Amino acid sequence: MSCNLFADPLLIGIFPRRDAVVTAKLFRPLSRYLEEKLQRPVKLELSPNFNVFLERLQERRYDLVHLNQYEYINAHEELDYVAIVQNEEFGEKTIRGAIYVRRDSGIENIDQLRGKKILFGGGPRAMMSYIVPTYLLRQAGLQADDYEESYAVNPPNAVLATYLKQADAAGAGEVVRRLPVVRNKIAVDELNIVAVSEPLPHLPWAVKNELEEDLKSQIKSLLLGLNETPQGKEILRQARLSAFNPADDKDYNTHRVIVDAIYAR
What we know:
The protein is α/β, with parallel strands linked by helices and 265 residues long.
């Protein structure tokens, strides 16, 4: 069966967790697979930076979008997107935020971060590397003026900078220390985690709520079924994913509690 070239393209948006070149390499095989199976044009749209991605999201350009949990919460409430699946990475269905220090820093608990420089892996909209670590600090009694807050370009850079003693601590996902971009550059056993969150639902993929129900069901079924075939497993491997797992909006209620604690809405 040939692709229906007259159908409207299904537009996929990916939040810039990585740079555009890497993102394209990871997810083009997935977009081509969806095009083949859905029998309609599918376009992967890349964003050069987070601001461009957010502008396009606000315009509701994307039919299917991969985004962090904070942006999903906002997109659901303001733009009528609904979660259908979530990532599984390193064989894990959940993800945790953490605060890193050097093992030789003498810092053994959060309270010792008073007056210290904490480097967060991304800006204030980064769920696992800013919002969740900040929540851990607040839960331990530290307020914004109790430490010096600064930002790295991304989570790996925050951890690397802390290792290089350019900061006293880093906010990043617990998984960051396992990434090749970190493990291949530093001795990760010289880092210590002084606080880690409870396991939280992973990064979601969401669709516009007004898409046809059959199309939404097809997309969800195709994503969930990838780990059942050799072709699908290769697509997952290229995307650095173990699998996709089912998700719906209520899975992100715990994130909402955390977000509300940091950003009263």
